[in-house]
Amino acid sequence: MRHHHAYHQVVLPYVGQLDIETNGQAGFVAGSVGSFVAAGSDHSFHGRSDSACIVLDIPHISAEDAANTEDMPTFFAIGPDIQGLIDYMKYSRSDDFTLRLRTAWSELLLARLAEQRIVLPGRERLAVSRAVAFMRERLAQSIGVRDIARAAGTSSSRLHEAFVRQLGTTPHAYLVALRLDAAERMLADPSLSIAEVAIRSGHFDQSALGRALRRERDTTPAMLRRVLRGGTGGNAQTPKERS
């Protein structure tokens, strides 16, 4: 359900994954990815029943922090400093987390997020473009994030942060989605066996493709092939590239 409110929100991962779309920019909160929802932003959330996130409403912040949120990234990488803040909240007893402490915690979190805005956008976009091109070119090969970062001319950690800021996802998750998109297209070709589709789309074998499809798209190669042959479309979710 889409909605908006007159205060900022910070959404941090706890268990599972939360899909979020803010002003047309889609991504997820999970693992090492968090989200900042600015006041007045039109947004929606969706998560499985076993997922949980920390949602921090920030109705009262200092004037300096308010100015710093104007161009805050919608998605951000969670480094050791922010993870430490999450762990502190997670393991604190509710009666120990006083209003004064919550306010200080919120301002410290915003300060850490504001620091992540200091980047070189042009260079970052170029690195992401190089990474995506490398993934598409080597889709069927056994490549990892380290290989992708090297091709993009940056480190694995910087590439991770760039993908989160630019695309709202991680390099690994983006590669998984690209491979599944390719597999879905090939499954529509009756001349290719499922085993061939698996290898050509970068999966180790047919079983690996099946596990990935069940995990990411709640389907199987056989089910998807039947749907595609019936002409009703599949569950493909093409990664959204943003500049």
UniProtKB/TrEMBL annotation:
HTH araC/xylS-type domain boundaries: 129-227
Lineage: superkingdom: Bacteria
Keyword annotations for this protein, in alphabetical order, are:
DNA-binding, Plasmid, Transcription, Transcription regulation
Question: Which GO molecular function annotation, any one, does this entry have?
Answer: DNA-binding transcription factor activity
Entry-linked InterPro entries: AraC_XylS_family_regulators, Homeodomain-like_sf, HTH_AraC
Q: Does the keyword Transcription apply?
A: yes
Q: What is this protein called?
A: Transcriptional regulator, AraC family
